[in-house]
Specification:
Blueprint lengths: L3 E7 L3 H12 L6 E7 L6 H7 L6 E4 L5 H11 L4 E4 L5 E2 L4 H11 L5 E9 L5 E4 L17 E4 H6 L10 H11 L4 E10 L5 H4 L1 H15 L2 H20 L4
Parallel strand pairs: 1-2, 1-4, 2-3, 6-9
Antiparallel strand pairs: 4-8, 5-9, 6-7, 6-8
Helix pairs in contact: 6-8, 8-9
Length: 243
C-alpha cells in the first residue's frame, strides 16, 4: 500500500487554505501523509491549522525564501513513496482522487512521475477540464505541477533550484526527463487549479525564466526551437501590452 505525501505551501491564504485542506482531509484513501509548510502567516491561518491538527501529519511555520524554498522544506519532511504539491487554493477534484491515482501507480510501476489533467473555472464560474500533453520535453510545463505525483527519490536527487522564482519546477522536470525518468499521463482531472498563483499573474517574468532554464538545460536543435517559440510569445505579449 503506497504512502502518499501531500504538501501544501501557504502564506496568508486562510480561506484558500481551508478549501485545500478539506479536499485532502476528505480523501477516501487512508495512507496519506499531509504536510503544511506555512511561510509565517499573520491572517489566522495558524489557528486553522491547529484546529485541524489531528488530520495533519506535520506542519511548520517560518519565513522562507520563496515558494520553491518552502517546497524543498516540504519534500525534506516527507516520507511517502510519492509526493504531490497541492498548494493553498488548489483542490483535489473528488474525495476518491488519491485512491484512483494509487491504483494507476500500482499498475504503472515502470514510471516514477504520474500526472493528470486539471479543471479550471471559466468566465461563468463553471469547471472546464484542460488536458495535459503526453510525456515530452517542451519550452514550458506540459502539465500542471499540482496534478503530479513524483517518486520521492527524484525530489531528493534534484531539489528545486531556488535561483528561479517561477520556473524551478520546469528545471526540475527537465532534469528528470534528461535522467531518463519515466513519465505517465493519467488522462483524467486530478485538481481544480487556482489561477491566482504568482506564475499565472506574472506571465512575462515566468516566460523569461523559462528562457533561462532552457539555456541551462537544453542543447542542440531542441534548445534553438524552444528559445524561438518563447521569444515569439514574449514579442506577441509585448505588442499586446500583456504583463
Amino acid at each position: 500500500m503506497f504512502k502518499m505525501s501531500i504538501v501544501t505551501v501557504t502564506l496568508n491564504h486562510r480561506e484558500l487554505l481551508e478549501c485545500t485542506m478539506l479536499s485532502v482531509i476528505n480523501q477516501t484513501y487512508s495512507n496519506i501523509e499531509y504536510i503544511i509548510v506555512d511561510g509565517g502567516s499573520t491572517d489566522h491561518s495558524i489557528e486553522l491549522i491547529k484546529k485541524n491538527e489531528s488530520h495533519i501529519t506535520k506542519w511548520i511555520t517560518e519565513k522562507d525564501e520563496g515558494i520553491y524554498d518552502a517546497m524543498n522544506k516540504g519534500a525534506r519532511l516527507a516520507s511517502g513513496d510519492y509526493l504531490c504539491f497541492l498548494n493553498s487554493g488548489d483542490m483535489l477534484v473528488s474525495d476518491n482522487t488519491i485512491e484512483q491515482v494509487v491504483k494507476d501507480i500500482a499498475s504503472g510501476k515502470d514510471a516514477s512521475i504520474f500526472y493528470g489533467n486539471i479543471c479550471v473555472k471559466n468566465s461563468e464560474n463553471a469547471l472546464k477540464e484542460k488536458k495535459a500533453s503526453e510525456p515530452t520535453n517542451k519550452q514550458r510545463m506540459f502539465f500542471c505541477h499540482q496534478s503530479a505525483f513524483v517518486s520521492i527519490k527524484w525530489l531528493q536527487k534534484y531539489p528545486f533550484d531556488t535561483r528561479y522564482k517561477m520556473s524551478a519546477d520546469l528545471k526540475f522536470f527537465k532534469q528528470c526527463f534528461y535522467a531518463d525518468c519515466v513519465f505517465k499521463h493519467l488522462d483524467y482531472p486530478i485538481v481544480i487549479y487556482d489561477r491566482s498563483g504568482i506564475s499565472h499573474r506574472n506571465r512575462n517574468a515566468g516566460l523569461r525564466e523559462n528562457v533561462a532554464v532552457i539555456k541551462e538545460m537544453d542543447h542542440g536543435i531542441s534548445r534553438l526551437l524552444f528559445l524561438f517559440l518563447l521569444y515569439i510569445v514574449l514579442y506577441w505579449r509585448m505588442l499586446n501590452n500583456k504583463s
